[in-house]
Design goal:
There is one protein chain. The protein contains nine helices and no strands. The protein is mostly helical and 194 residues long.
């Protein structure tokens, strides 16, 4: 199977996830600017989740550029990732509705952690399918961001039981870590073509 169907399906699912999230944003109770104040937790939760979904979409897009042939393992690993991403609207809305509560913050982190692990599984499936000279393996190298992120998620989940605000700050820190454009795959593809 070629990768275009996998890319199109994944892009569509992520677009639907973002659409579901924005539809869950509450409207202000009134028509004044002050009526927006109680909605800040909703908006900040939405913004954080939107950034995460954008990061996954962007990195997924770059990663699939290294794929020449899609295997059954890659298909299932991709569905595994999309499953965890599909839970983002649910945990986003729960966290927004209970901004300083432990359980929503911890579960939000658990979903982020499981999505990160699913992304790693997809990466591994692609590398295995490409063999020992895998372009993706060369591109990601030691992948320090990929290794530190799950540790930060675990720390954030644990901290949610003492301070949900600290946990939310750690989730934001991981997002900022990934917002810095990662050129590893682009460089590897350019070198491979050159």
């Amino acid at each position: 199977m070629g990768k275009t169907r996998l890319e199109a399906f994944s892009d569509g699912v992520i677009a639907i996830i973002i659409t579901v999230m924005v539809l869950e944003l509450r409207r202000p109770a009134g028509a004044d600017f002050l009526d927006l104040r109680p909605l800040w937790p909703d908006f900040l939760s939405y913004l954080l989740s939107f950034v995460y979904l954008g990061i996954y979409w962007n990195n997924h897009h770059h990663m699939l550029h290294t794929v020449h042939r899609v295997t059954g393992g890659i298909l299932w690993a991709n569905l595994h990732l999309l499953f965890w991403l599909s839970l983002v609207p649910f945990v986003t809305e729960w966290m927004a509705s209970h901004a300083s509560a432990t359980a929503p913050s911890a579960v939000y982190g658990a979903v982020l952690l499981l999505a990160a692990l699913a992304y790693f599984v997809l990466q591994h499936a692609i590398i295995v399918s490409q063999g020992r000279d895998s372009l993706l393996k060369t591109a990601i190298g030691r992948d320090w961001k990929g290794k530190i992120s799950p540790l930060l998620y675990i720390a954030a989940i644990a901290s949610a039981f003492r301070s949900p605000a600290l946990a939310d700050g750690l989730y934001g820190a991981v997002a900022l870590l990934w917002l810095i454009p990662d050129k590893r795959i682009e460089r590897a593809l350019a070198q491979n073509e050159g």
